[in-house]
Amino acid sequence: MSRVVLSGYYGFCNLGDEAILGATVDALRDRRPGLDIAVLTATPQATSGTYGVEGVPRNRPREIVRTLRGCDVYLSGGGSLFQDATSWRSPWYYLGVLALARRLARRTVIYAQGIGPLRGRTVRLATRRLLNAVDLITLRDRESLGALDDLGIHRPRVVLAADPSLLLRPEWSARAQGEKARWGEGTHFGLALRPWEGDRVLDVVSAAAKMVADRLGVRWICLPMHPPGDLTAAEQVAARIGPAAEVVRVRLAPREMLALIGSLALLVGMRFHALVFAAAGGVPVIPVAYDPKVAAFAHELGETALDAARLETSALVEAIETAAADLPGRRDRLLGAVAPLRARAALAPEAVADLIA
Predict the structure, then answer these.
(1) Which numeric CATH code is attached to 3-160?
(2) 243 burial class (0-12, 13-18, 19+ CB within 10 angstroms)?
(3) What tens digit of pLDDT does each residue of 129-182 get?
(4) What pLDDT sits at residue 88?
(5) If 0-12 CB within 10 Å is exposed, 13-18 middle and 19+ buried, where does residue 240 land?
(6) Cα separation of 5 and 36, whole Å?
């Protein structure tokens, strides 16, 4: 039986990364039934129970070595693992595991990743050396092609794929249906925000959302994609908007959140995977870019992202109201843009399945 090991930001209650994991496991098993899959994770028991894989503690070197030794394919990703914008430690962890896998696994793959930004000279050199030595690189977006070129990574085969979560299927569980029923009647717009450089962005979004609610009579649904931080931000924003806002407090699985987001009329999002979930369901999006990956995804969709660092209330209100004035047209254009991305997302598991064969 062939064995695959996955490494990413798994087991930290981030719905986006868990969506990547669930979609990747499903896609690989669809192509190679009976595949033995192990996942390096912060919560081995929970990961094992949820996905039917072997959960391996990501912070225990001996367990990592045992898991990697002799595996057929090691997958690094998806997500944005090789970047030092959120933490200088993060890329070194994933580079370290990749270095081990180069010695212990039969094949190594960079899986559906967004590359960069990498600002430190030493980490750039280490990334270039290790990624030039892998067997295959599959990328999440076109901007990452340029990042590879900038880093001097030219040796492995490169496949332009897309985010694995585009392959995820929504689940209208009783829990998801109950949450949707709690919102009541009317038009629902979504907010998927995150803590970022103080409260300024949250203040701007709150003011804009309140103005739009007063003008258009819509209700705002605040969606925490990565609690507890996102939940705190959602509570703060909802309190400032007032009675026209609701917070999703129930813990949801990625497929359940995908279903709920797909039922919205529009989404304003900082969180990358909230935007992916919305786009997958044809829900018009207003991306607010705090990180290059958000701007890159907006570009893939043919949308313009608002810069979080320069976000102003008037500009956000205008963007929301312009989109709201043509929701059917925006939906049709978005579904047209997502179709080729979903086809691209299938290229990554297909390339891995070819390596296993």
Answers:
(1) 3.40.50.2000
(2) exposed
(3) 999 999 999 999 999 999 999 999 999 999 999 999 999 999 999 999 999 999
(4) 86
(5) middle
(6) 9
Amino acid present at 219: R
Q: Where in the chain is the domain with CATH 3.40.50.2000?
A: 3-160, 174-341
pLDDT digits 0-9 by tens, 49-85: 999 999 999 999 999 999 999 899 999 999 999 998 8
Integer-rounded Cα Rg, in Å, for the chain is 20
CA 61 to chain centre: 27
Query: Is the separation of the CB atoms in 19 and 49 below 8 Å?
Result: no
Nearby residues of 44 by Cβ (< 8 Å), 6 or more positions away: 11, 55, 56, 57
- CA–CA distance, 259 with 39 (Å, rounded to integer): 25
At residue 110, what are phi and psi to the nearest 5 degrees? -90, 120
CATH fold for domain 174-341: Rossmann fold (3.40.50)
Q: Which two tokens stand for residue 241?
A: 């908007």
Cβ atoms 261, 278 nearer than 8 A: yes
Residue 298 to residue 310: CA distance in whole angstroms: 17
